[in-house]
Write a structure and sequence with these properties.
Helix content: 40-55%
Largest sheet: 9 strands, parallel
Structural class: alpha/beta
Order of helices and strands: HEHEHEHEHEHEHEEHEH
CATH topology: TIM Barrel
Distance between the termini: 44 Å
Number of strands: 9
Shape: globular
Strand content: 15-25%
Number of domains: 1
CATH superfamily: Glycosidases
Radius of gyration: 20 Å
CATH architecture: Alpha-Beta Barrel
CATH class: Alpha Beta
Length: 278
């Protein structure tokens, strides 16, 4: 075998190994959340602002249990298409009342079919009996590839202890791939150090819970959601630093976008940028 041929084979093996290792990494995602009542009126300006802050993911509410599956179809399609053109991905979400889990699941499935939507999440806050959560998840999974990741938007573990007595944590972890906890602090504190402590406690507890149950649950990732409800740059920095210190460096996001002030988004962007540069 010639030296040149050996080098070609060696290069090919290295390329494949490198490509495979990269493919397993979860891409860095800095996200914001939009609800049904606050779609941006000027999509181009909205997306330019996201680009300027290095925000590359939009979590867009598509509907609720008590609305059509796609409440604003034309606006949603335009936003998703325009975002994709700028390499900003859009993940949809549904607020599920779970009064009729199978109907909610059908709306989730219809919303997920929107062209160029990168994924779907469901907000689980009401009527969250385990049997209803299971019925919803099983109905959804029948219509998706087994590798399609299902995202559950949940309460913070600080507000709902990690057992099934008051909130179906184990049921959610058994039936969903990703847990996106709403780590909101605006009604609890305005002190940055306390924001850091609350975020760290919630993420540490959730990570421990998932590690202790890893052999019986599906959930493998945490997507923390921070609070934009009247918060300051210092609070956002504390939240973001707590996520990074808990070794959650991808898929950190803030809710809701329409309440975000420029200096707050700048603080979020700079904290993440500094971390990745270091």
């Amino acid at each position: 075998m010639s030296k040149v041929f050996k080098l070609i084979i060696l290069f090919g093996i290295c390329f494949v190994l490198n490509f495979s290792s990269r493919a397993q990494l979860e891409p860095v995602s800095n996200g914001i959340w939009i609800n049904l009542w606050n779609y941006p009126s000027d999509i181009e300006a909205f997306l330019e602002n996201l680009e300027s802050q290095n925000i590359n993911t939009i979590y867009l509410q598509i509907g609720r249990s008590n609305t059509p599956a796609i409440k604003k179809p034309e606006h949603a399609k335009e936003l998703i298409m325009s975002a994709k053109a700028k390499n900003i991905k859009t993940i949809g979400w549904l607020y599920a009342l779970l009064e009729e889990p199978e109907e909610d699941a059908q709306k989730f499935i219809q919303a997920a079919a929107l062209e160029n939507l990168a994924g779907m999440a469901v907000d689980l806050e009401e009527n969250v009996e385990s049997e209803k959560v299971i019925l919803f998840a099983k109905t959804v999974r029948k219509n998706f590839n087994k590798n399609y990741p299902l995202i559950a938007i949940t309460y913070s573990p600080v507000l709902r202890p990690l057992d099934n007595s008051k909130y179906p944590w184990k049921t959610i972890a058994e039936n969903f791939d990703i847990i996106a906890p709403m780590l909101y602090w605006s009604k609890l504190t305005k002190e940055p150090n306390q924001v850091y402590a609350l975020t760290s406690e919630a993420l540490s507890d959730l990570k421990d819970f998932m590690a202790q149950n890893k052999d019986t649950i599906r959930a493998h990732s945490i997507y923390p959601i921070g609070d934009l409800q009247g918060t300051s740059p210092e609070e956002i920095k504390s939240f973001t630093k707590a996520c990074l210190d808990q070794e959650i460096i991808n898929n950190i996001s803030l809710y809701p976008y329409h309440l975000a002030k420029p200096d707050v988004l700048e603080a979020f962007s700079q904290e993440l940028k500094q971390y990745h540069q270091d």
